[in-house]
Amino acid sequence: MASSLAELLGSDFAEKYPEARIPPPSFVESGAQIVEYVPGKSLTESFEIHERQTGPMGILQGGLLCGLFDDVFGPLSFVCAKRPCVSIDMNVSFVRATKVGDVLTIKAEFVSRTRTLFQMRAEAHNSRGKLVATATSNLLVYEPGP
């Protein structure tokens, strides 16, 4: 099992897309840890929640939770396409609050795939196994131009 995003992508990706920053700065900043990768099916990551990620009520800011979902959708799409992918949309439904010190586990999986479009869904659970939020996203397999 690969322990880093670079290992999952392999050296061919880095050679073909030298401009790609792997892992991306957002992935590093989020503190993402790869928990499990099921080839071609799903990716699970964990994220510890810090004070700097909270809003005025001391809970995880919703937009940042969306970013955490994206830090799972994106890597799963890159690994499976072996090419860059870009999000077309994302829908997030919030279920319960997350506080500082909690660890979120997010599992993303494919709903449908074509050669150029990936549909995915994901769930975020807290340290107690309680559902925090769900998300869906469509991603376009993308070939950067000159």
Feature tags:
alpha+beta, 37% strand, Thiol Ester Dehydrase, Chain A, 6-stranded antiparallel beta sheet, 146 residues
Structure, explained:
The protein has 4 helices and 6 strands; from the N terminus they run αααββαββββ. It is of the alpha+beta class. It has a single domain (5-141), classed as Hotdog Thioesterase (Thiol Ester Dehydrase, Chain A). It has a 6-stranded antiparallel sheet with strand order 1-2-4-5-6-3, with helices on one face. A hairpin with a 3-residue loop joins β1 (33-38) and β2 (42-48). The N and C termini lie far apart (34 Å).
Gross morphology is globular
Helix content: 25-40%
β-strand percent reads: 35-45%
Structure summary, number of beta strands = 6
Give, in order, the helices and strands: HHHEEHEEEE
Largest sheet: 6 strands, antiparallel
Q: N-to-C terminal Cα separation, in Å?
A: 34 Å
In CATH, the architecture is Roll
Class based on secondary structure composition and strand pairing: alpha+beta
Lateral strand order in the biggest sheet: 1-2-4-5-6-3
CATH topology: Thiol Ester Dehydrase, Chain A
What is the multimeric organization of the chains shown? single chain
| Low-pLDDT stretches | none
